[in-house]
Write a structure and sequence with these properties.
This protein is α/β, with parallel strands linked by helices and 390 residues long. It has twelve helices and 14 strands. The chain has two domains: 125 residues, Enolase-like, N-terminal domain (Enolase-like, domain 1, 2-Layer Sandwich); 240 residues, Enolase-like C-terminal domain (TIM Barrel).
Length: 390
């Protein structure tokens, strides 16, 4: 058993939408395929991975550094003979050889996509869905039968701000979602308050609405928004300031009594530890959103779970960013608080498997091996085309 080839490609996910900080008009992601010399049920075992939205493709890092290290390694270094599969944690150590600590950025996103493909191949070789494999190896066999999900959306609609926003949120409700998320900070406070109220009119209560500033605010603006939004009792107030401005987050938590969410732009377990140490995060109400596909992968995310345990936090306060089936499998198998979804944007990579229904804001996971890429035929077809399989 060995890894025989690693393919990479750039996946375009350009969209004419924006948040408070960036436009997605030129957005790309990493695509990765890890090929093995094994077959299961007559099919070659190939693991697929891709990055979450919000960053750009970094295929050169994978091709020039990570891939040669894996292909040059003796398979005995990464084979899990006991379980008849590959060992993703050993492979992570191999492809990260000779990499200095710190400097977490593009390298973390490239590693995350590769690590996803490796875990997909691992689960397929073991002939188990990833959520079940994680449950057995890292959670004492426990898993959630259903997972809370919410759609990341609520972007700006120039010229039809309120009507467009209401229609989008009504569509999510009709798809089966209970909780939704919208963007703030891309307009002035008075307009954003009107947008929040318009969405609450659709949802019936602020408790079902999360808002996301995408790191746009300085401290004064973050506090002003907090004072304006606090009466609505929102699900959470996300990423008010720069992700590394732990002091801003800590001061906001002193003045804003509602839940705060952040972490999607932290890319290592070290950064996550610093958030807990210095960011004022409150274990009884706040949410942490580190994205495995952007932060060196599930292998690094498991280290962050150790940090969570050491600080006395419940894993139920974790909701990974990303809106993909990788995070959904992790949330189910390791019993987290939920998972993001992107049913309307970043297609064909956003959202979950075609056969997964959303009911009362929750989804159940299938038993198909791997992370479920094959359960999204349009996505699989596009990935294979770009990765030059066809």
């Amino acid at each position: 058993m060995k890894i025989t080839r690693i393919r990479t490609a750039v996946g375009p996910i350009a969209s004419e939408i924006r948040n408070a900080y960036i436009s997605f008009s030129t957005m790309t992601i990493n695509l990765v395929a890890v090929e093995t010399d094994e077959t299961r049920n007559g099919e070659p075992v190939i693991g697929y991975g891709f990055s979450s939205n919000g960053r750009y493709a970094q295929t050169a890092i994978i091709n020039e550094r990570f891939t040669p290290r894996i292909l040059d390694a003796d398979p005995s270094e990464y084979i899990d003979e006991e379980n008849d599969t590959i060992d993703p944690q050993k492979l992570w150590s191999i492809f990260m050889r000779n990499e200095k600590p710190g400097g977490h950025g593009d390298r973390a996103h490239a590693a995350g996509a590769l690590d996803m493909a490796i875990w997909d191949a691992c689960a397929k070789l073991a002939q188990k869905p990833l959520w079940k494999l994680l449950s057995e190896r890292f959670n004492g066999g426990k898993a959630d039968e259903r997972v809370l999900v919410y759609p990341g959306g609520g972007y700006y609609y120039p010229g039809k701000e309120l009507d467009g926003l209401r229609a989008e949120m009504q569509g999510y409700r009709e798809q089966g979602y209970s909780y939704v998320k919208m963007k703030i900070g891309g307009a002035d406070l008075s307009l954003d308050v009107k947008r929040i109220e318009a969405v609450i009119d659709v949802l019936g209560s602020g408790q079902y609405l999360a808002v996301d500033a995408n790191g746009r605010f300085d401290l004064d603006t973050a506090l002003s928004y907090g004072r304006a939004m606090e009466p609505y009792g929102l699900f959470w107030y996300e990423e008010a300031g720069d992700p590394l401005d732990y002091r801003l987050n800590a001061v906001l938590s002193e003045h804003y009594s509602g839940p705060i969410a952040t972490g999607e732009n932290l890319f290592s377990h070290h950064d996550g530890r610093n958030l807990l140490r210095y960011g004022g995060m409150r274990a009884d109400r706040d949410w942490i959103q580190i994205d495995p596909a952007l932060s060196y992968g599930l292998t690094e995310y498991l280290r962050f779970l150790d940090v969570i345990d050491q600080h006395g936090w419940s894993r139920r306060r974790l909701i990974p960013h990303g809106g993909h089936q990788f995070a959904l499998n992790i949330a189910a198998g390791l019993q987290m608080g939920g998972s993001e979804s992107y049913p309307g944007v970043f297609q064909p990579y956003g959202g979950f498997a075609d056969k997964i229904p959303i009911k009362d804001g929750y989804v159940t996971l299938p038993d198909d091996p791997g992370i479920g890429v094959e359960l999204k035929p349009e996505m699989l077809g596009e990935m294979r085309r770009l990765l030059s399989f066809e």
